[in-house]
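User: I'm putting together notes for a lab meeting next week and I want to include a structural view of one of the chains we've been expressing. I don't have a solved structure, so I'd like a prediction I can at least talk through. The sequence is below, exactly as it appears in our construct file.
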Amino acid sequence: MTSTEAAAIALQDHAALWSAGEISASEVVSAACDALVAGLDTPGLRILAACTRAEADYDVHDLLPPALDELGLNLHPAAGVAGQEAAARALARRMLSGEMKPWELTFRIRQRYGHELPLTQRLAELDDEYALLEDRDRDVERVDAEVTAEARRLAGHPRIPTEPADIPS
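Assistant: Thanks for the context. Below is the predicted structure for the 169-residue chain, given as structure tokens.
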């Protein structure tokens, strides 16, 4: 994966997590800055990346959708299934990158979606298994391995475009 592909995925993930209320607007601005450094460049992305922390809470709502659109990326409504799935996939990628532990992923998924979102049902079931464990290392390792495998499945997705969409002059 090229650095621009990774930056596009990270920006899309930050957008989904921000929309779901998982991260702050300033974290989205930081992801926009990282995307510029990685080689993604559109007018909307530059404007988004130029936000200060103080402006982010007010401006990201208006600046993020056009910046993503210019890059051929999507911002799904958090309440819709597509938005929920995008946030779940982003959380799975965070766990795989070491930003959270397997039990934290299952806990957050179950707290947010319960057993209702088909894409994450297995993670909710694994959270139930964690609750039943009596702290036996072997059992915890087994469930951790299952969570990791499920996170890998969730993290798989169609390729995100890395070339900006045609921008009218």
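A couple of points you could mention at the meeting. The helical segments are 3-19, 25-38, 43-49, 53-70, 81-96, 102-113, 121-132, 137-155. DSSP finds eight helices and no strands in the chain.

User: Perfect, that's what I needed.
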